[in-house]
Design goal:
- Strands 1, 2, 3, 4 and 8 form a five-stranded antiparallel sheet that branches.
- With about 575 residues, the protein is mainly beta.
- The protein contains three helices and 43 strands.
- It has three domains: about 140 residues, Immunoglobulin-like (Sandwich), CATH 2.60.40; about 180 residues, Neuraminidase (6 Propeller), CATH 2.120.10; about 140 residues, Kelch-type beta propeller (Neuraminidase), CATH 2.120.10.80.
Amino acid sequence: MHFPPFVIFAALGSAALVSPALAEVPQLLNYQGRVRVSGSDFSGTGQFKFSLVSGSGGVTYWSNDGTGTGGGQPAAAVSLPVQAGLYSVLLGDATLPNMTVLAPGVFTNDEVRLRVWFSDGVNGWQQLTPDQRVAAVGYALMADDVKDGAVSSSKLAEGAVTASKLAAGAVTAAALDPAAVVSSLNAAGQGTVPSGASLLSSVPDAPALLAAGYQSVGTLNTSDSWSSIAGGTARDTAASVWTGTEMLIWGDGTEGWRYHPKTNVWRAMSVAGQPANRDEPMAVWTGTEMIVWGGVTAGVYVNTGGRYNPVTDTWTATTTTNAPSVRAFGSAVWTGSEMIVFGGVSSSAVLGDGGRYNPALGANGTWSTLSTTSAPGLRYFHTAVWSGSGMIVYGGRNGAAALNDGARFNPAAGGTWTALPVGPSARFYHTALWTGTGMIVWGGSDTGGATPLKTGGIYRPLTNDWAATGTAGAPDARLQHGAVWTGTEMIVFGGTTSASSFAYSASGGRYNVSNNSWVLTTLNGAPAARVRPNLAWSGDQLTVWGGSNGSPLAEGGNYRLGQTFYLYQRP
């Protein structure tokens, strides 16, 4: 359908400002505009999205729901009444659904422009043009702040600042002249901290405290802990990726979910244009998109997929031209420019081939064939990691037996495979992750599938050899568990400790590579036992969600590490 572009006629109205002597300055910006659809003034309830962007339009300073970046659309819309094409809105009015507070700091930037998107609910979203430059009225919001250094001592009358004029905590130690503190303490007869006084620090052997005469007298260790989470819809064969701020979960359901662990907020992904629902899809995060591919749809193996952009909350289908054959239970890694898929199983065969998908070539991306020269043998339930320069494939099973071999694939110059040396004992349903210098393989099951493993190994590409992971203090042997890398440790959680009876586990452990040691994760407050959990590490905590304990789950937990504090005392 031909849809002429919207036309906007708009001007920034005046901000509602009140003298600070009378009231707080409202953090609101009044905006009035006009929209026309197909040449006629629009009337009805319109859907709007707002962002304050840089003069070039490439930087987002503020958006109505806080999700806009790089000048792109925010995820959620604001509903506004439009009469004969005219509408008005108070930007920053948090009483409106999907409207966040407008911070004065936005107007510390030299040039700020308002960008607006509109949808009439029929013809999709349209960016209104041109962007409107915010003039001096918007910058009046800065009246709520006083520029640093603006109030000097010469501008204060003697006795003007009294204790009753200071909010609790307003004056910090960093703001006080040390001499003033000493003088005050001496005047009160408390010129020194009394003997026996103690304090805690996160710094061992803190130079400043030791120089001040404190003595290190011990440590205080806080325990690791769990907090429960619930949200989304139950599923146990979904794929997940970590974006840097959110956990994206898709598959085994009618929609995908976005979980933000810092705010404990769940949001549904758009279903418009998403691939057909499926179990066991493969997934990678590109830095801007989640790519899902393959899996099983209603019992049928597929080679379709899609790319999800969380900034625009939109899907783009992956092309099937030259795509690998249908499959599930394969592996996928992201190289920085393409997704590499290898192995898996179709409805009738175990596979040993794959493909390379480049999303930047063409509207729906481009597939090229993955070289099979010297490639590892047929396999599924294996693992693959990206080392920064190549894909490393290990283990799995070939239908009859578990495997303890693998290979490295270098995508440069068309791609070449190099066999790995023989690794730890044969296994499948294990986990593998990249530490920055090596690949850790842990857990899984042997050929018969009846013996879970608590062993593993670290493959080191620089020396092309393996080192065994320690078993002392390790959690119970298991398979179908999850694992993440924190930057210093591997954390494993869940799985089953018996492949034959599905003894679901709620335990886990932390493996420290540098000292080859294990510490068990606490069971206190841990989420329910499960297999195939979705895991993500957000920088300071582990998120566990979903999986199965006989039924799909829609809950989990956030796990925080314990911390060591150092105790100092004045002798």
